[in-house]
Design a protein that fits this description.
Blueprint (H helix, E strand, L loop, with lengths): L44 H47 L4 H11 L4 E7 L5 E11 L9 E11 L5
Antiparallel strand pairs: 1-2, 2-3
Helix pairs in contact: 1-2
Length: 158
């Protein structure tokens, strides 16, 4: 059950003359311009073109920003996966170079560094970074640096 609100519209001159003028109520008269010609276009047609010219670039910019934010999320997920795989492979006993190549296959362009700590359980800490540039090539100074860090426990290899 919805709420209905009264709508007040001024339709004088569009649906015919007032009853006080002796006109027929409800009779539809053709629209006229200020010059009095029936069927001529209203004067605000230039405003439609102006609004269109302002709104279309704004919509394009918002769509470009949304697409770039999706790319940021995708790059972060790929970086996390590459760093996790590298840490897991090093923890299983694979040498750092081979594990780093596996990470590069998952996400080319990422810089992945690994180090082992000498604590009681040996830990492998892997850090990956990636610089994601702007979607427009001329914006060289605008970029995002993504970072991911994973820690894995060194496994005993029989």
């Amino acid at each position: 059950m919805g709420i209905q609100l009264p709508i007040l519209l001024s339709v004088r001159g569009r649906l015919g003359p007032d009853r006080s003028d002796g006109g027929v109520p409800g009779r539809v008269e053709p629209l006229t311009s200020s010059s009095g010609e029936a069927g001529s276009r209203p004067r605000d047609s230039g405003m439609v073109i102006l609004e269109f010219a302002l709104v279309v670039p704004l919509i394009f910019f918002v769509a470009l920003c949304a697409a770039w934010l999706l790319r940021v999320g995708q790059a972060q997920a790929q970086l996390d996966d590459a760093v996790r795989t590298t840490a897991r492979e090093i923890a299983r006993g694979t040498d750092r170079h081979t594990a780093g190549e596996l990470g590069q296959q998952i996400f080319p362009g990422a810089r992945i560094k690994a180090r082992e700590t000498g604590s009681a359980p040996l830990l492998v800490t892997t850090v990956g970074t990636y610089r994601l540039n702007a979607p427009i090539p001329n914006l060289d100074g605008f970029h995002i640096r993504l970072r991911s860090e994973m820690i894995a426990v060194k496994e005993d290899v029989p």
